Amino acid sequence: MAFETPILAPSLLAADFTRLGEEINQCLSSNIRWLHCDIMDGHFVPNISYGPFIVNAVCRAAPETFLDVHLMIENPDQYVDAFAEAGANLITVHYETCPHLHRTIQHIKSLGCQTGVAINPATSIDLLYPILPDVDMVLVMSVNPGFGGQSFIESAFQKVYKLNAVRKQLNLNYLIEVDGGVQKKNATELIRKGADVLVAGSSVFKKESIPNAIQDLRAKMNAGRADMV
Fold it and tell me: Looking at domain 7-227, which of 3.20.20.70, 3.40.50.11540, 3.30.390.10, 3.40.50.720 is its CATH number?
């Protein structure tokens, strides 16, 4: 499934779950075509979010939407089948949780899903070189995963820049996604450095107007794309 970049992917972790259908519809009405699902298990990260049941509910509520499922969990191999069956279009696993990363990525592909690999702020992107030809997306965490609303970690800019340079050097096609603390003040620079997908939770769902927040973020993202050489 091809999309024009840059892509804004609102994170449902920040949504009001008592009004989830309504808030998803506000995103769809604002031409959002990606939704980001943060799956947390209380072990790899110090929080618990939701599981395949909610992902399937989102899939049924927005069947034309690309579901970007981010597994912040231990032993992801035990659960990727359930999330694929629930309707995930892309499943991202963490480098830090996959001792046999290539096998995990191949497993996800065998389920008909696109694949992503994520790294925490303290993890070097140099460790990803062997897997880059095999993934559809690299997710740069710009906060320590576990909770929404955290402050952006500035080292993410350099990671995005380096991943973009490697992508060009090796003639690869993976998308670069950034998740954590994304807002208007850093969206332009992230796109300028080479990011393709920005995940935004609080800066979309915690604002007075979801459509206005989406419009403002998109304007900043488009400004970054216009500035790229």
Answer: 3.20.20.70
